[in-house]
Structure formats: C-alpha cells, structure tokens
Amino acid sequence: MKTIRIYCRKCKIRLTEDLLEIPQDKIYFPDEAEAIPEGKFVFFKNNSMLSILVNRKQSLLKDHADSSRFYGCCGSDGSYGYNKVCSNNHEVATEFSDCYTSYYIEISLKNTIVKQINDKGIFEEMKFKYFTLK
After folding, report:
1. Edge-to-edge strands of the sheet including 19-21?
2. Rounded distance, CA 82 to CA 69, Å?
3. The CATH number, out of the four listed (2.115.10, 2.170.150, 3.30.420, 2.40.160), of the domain defined by the range 3-125
C-alpha cells in the first residue's frame, strides 16, 4: 500500500498530511456517513475519471470563498464545481457532504501534485499516464 502527500499544482503548498492507501473495494458509500477513514485515501475511477478520495477532515484545505459552490440542502452535494482551495485560494478539490451523499473530498489530479514515498523514504512525484481532466 502506498503512502502519499498531496500538493497544490500552482503554488506547491502541501494540502494533506501523509495518507495511507486503502483498496477501492474496501470502501463503500453510505448516506450521511464518512466514506473514507481519516488518514487514508483511495484512487477512485469513475467512468474515465481518475481522482483521489480522502476523508473530509483535511485541516490544510480551506472552503472556497464562493459559498454557492456548497449548494445542497444539508451540506455540499458537489455539483457546483471545486469548493475546496489551498491556503492561496487555488481550486483543488470538491467536498461531498449532503444528506443524500457519503462524506468525502475528491481531490483533482489536474490541480494537484501527488508524491509517493519510495523505498528510501523520500517522497517522489507520481506520474499519472491515463486520466481524464475534470
């Protein structure tokens, strides 16, 4: 299983603490509950889109200044674009937290850099050969 850190592609600021991979088949999407445990991540492929799902508790991410990005009846339904930003206000992720959704953050691979720890204990940038930009 991989250990990663995620950074903003534009300003290179760190967005997450170290995250440990869990297999996609180990997650489920219950309504009104966390889909991803804290400190974990999963590579998630939906149709031709590859992204990273993480727990909502990410202290290095901020809410988008445009509150309309968080539309939903009880939380964010995720349908109005990126609603999480880095500390320099670059759009990097989408929070899902409405009453009819599972709770998680979907990290954009287009807007972020993912670094994986190698066998020497050094974080190296991962290259994603096949993914569709969101």
Report:
1. 62-63, 84-85, 91-96, 104-107, 49-54, 40-46, 19-21, 3-8, 112-117, 123-125
2. 7
3. 2.170.150
SS3 category, 69: helix
Q: Using an 8 Å Cβ cutoff, are 86 and 8 in contact?
A: yes
pLDDT in tens, 65-107: 999 999 998 889 999 999 999 999 999 999 999 999 999 999 9
What values do phi and psi take at 49, rounded to 5? -100, 125
The two three-digit tokens of residue 74, written as one number: 């009880």
pTM: 0.91
Q: Domain map of the chain by residue range?
A: 3-125
Token pair for residue 17?
A: 């603490």
pLDDT tens per residue, range 24-61: 888 889 889 999 999 999 998 877 788 999 999 999 99
Q: CA 6, CA 125: separation in Å to the nearest integer?
A: 9
Check: CB of residue 82 under 8 Å from CB of residue 106. Answer: no
Residue 56 is encoded by which pair of tokens?
Answer: 């909502």
